[in-house]
Request: fold
Amino acid sequence: MQYYLLYLFLLFDEMGIDHVMEILVMAKKLTSDQIEQYQREGYLMPLDLFTRDEALDVRNNIEDLEQSYNSDTSNHPLNQFFRINGQVVIPFMAEIAQTPALLDTVEDILGPDLMIWSCELFIKEASTEKVVSWHQDLTYWGLGETDEEVTAWIAFSDVSKQAGCMKFIPGSHKQSIVPHSDTFSEDNLLSRGQEIAVEVNENEAVYNQLKPGQMSLHHGRLFHASGPNHSNDRRIGMAIRYVTPSVRQVVGKRDFGMLARGADREQNWINIAQPSTLFGANEMKLYNEILEAQSEALTEGAEQKVGLYASSNDMAGA
Reply:
């Protein structure tokens, strides 16, 4: 309890007592114990969001798109859209990010004004060695060390330990961002193969095993990773990054966000709308504009090209 009180004191100092009390008193989905656990441990799981049938419908949408996609129409591989800002060009990804029950849950952590910074699909094929190394999300985003960001990670397949679920180090979000190094490993799903450059005690890890339709929440400074998928099915999950309007881009010149709830009174973001057409011309123009702007922050300091942030011109000349 003393750690929770200390956290609240620090939160009051950073976010303001009125804002914090509003979160605690007006909780819509989470109990006070769950909110306390998130603040103490840096994560919350498992949380029920969709039914198994609803999760299967989303998986079918993903796999139908994989079958029908033609890269000649956009000069981008489909995986780039899956991994970077899919909510800008793929309507069903934006719709998932704005699911009312999901927003209610995130609101209990961040408050009533919510923006979607990005949506990503993390897919590990069956019986493969792809991993995500130990890292802190906020390291390369250019958003500082804010507490006003949370990732919702939704399972659309069985996400077991065998399938390479995420694992967390409880309480590690209370640290500042620690040094990371880029590996650019082919088996690492992260854009730079980035990994924490300090010792991580694996014995402290908690495994984030989820059933289809369940989700977890985690803090942007939490140490987390995931292992290979040694199961006989694909591991499919969507990571949605939410921020409050007070968060701002501090490395790049500008950044973009989709207002999901409340109001953006801070004007730190270029506000964008939900896409109306799958890979529509206007959506693609906006996607490329965002890709160029965000690459300034997300590739800063990289010693080689970060492939996921290659522009359409780079793709066309590849």
